[in-house]
Write a structure and sequence with these properties.
single chain; alpha+beta; three-stranded antiparallel beta sheet
């Protein structure tokens, strides 16, 4: 009985494993901008909703909330260069009613040409907050 040799099989297996490892590394690196953009959008939406709920003046509430959201998005810690953002604020209808802040983001895709991916769509993070009845003078 003649035995077949497994000689020379290690080289193709190593090459296949190396290609798969490189593809996995590129895939994991491609998630970093999206994760950072989502984190910044969550922080901005939360900050926006907090300022929206604390403001006793509805005319300035929207301006303050949007300003705080943009300050959070443009902070040094966010490191989200190349990400597109949009901020949308819905004012509460009256004392104790809900208002909301929504931050839309579109993160660039790393290795776009290499991976053959298209431009990603818009994602969003949002928070709802209730205005404090004792502070809100909505007349």
């Amino acid at each position: 009985m003649k035995r077949r040799s497994e000689r020379g099989q290690a080289m193709p297996e190593t090459a296949l494993f190396a290609v798969l490892a490189v593809l996995m590394a590129f895939g994991l690196l491609a998630w970093i901008p999206t994760h950072r953009a989502r984190t910044a959008a969550t922080a901005a939406a939360y900050a926006c909703s907090q300022f929206l709920s604390q403001s006793p003046d509805p005319s300035r509430a929207r301006q303050n909330a949007i300003r705080v959201a943009w300050q959070t998005l443009n902070a040094d810690w966010s490191a989200t260069r190349g990400v597109n953002y949009r901020v949308q604020v819905s004012l509460p209808g009256g004392p104790g009613e809900a208002g909301s802040c929504q931050v839309f983001f579109q993160a660039p895709t790393l290795f776009d040409g290499l991976l053959g991916l298209g431009q990603t769509g818009w994602n969003s993070e949002w928070f709802i907050s209730r205005s404090e009845t004792w502070k809100a003078w909505w007349r």
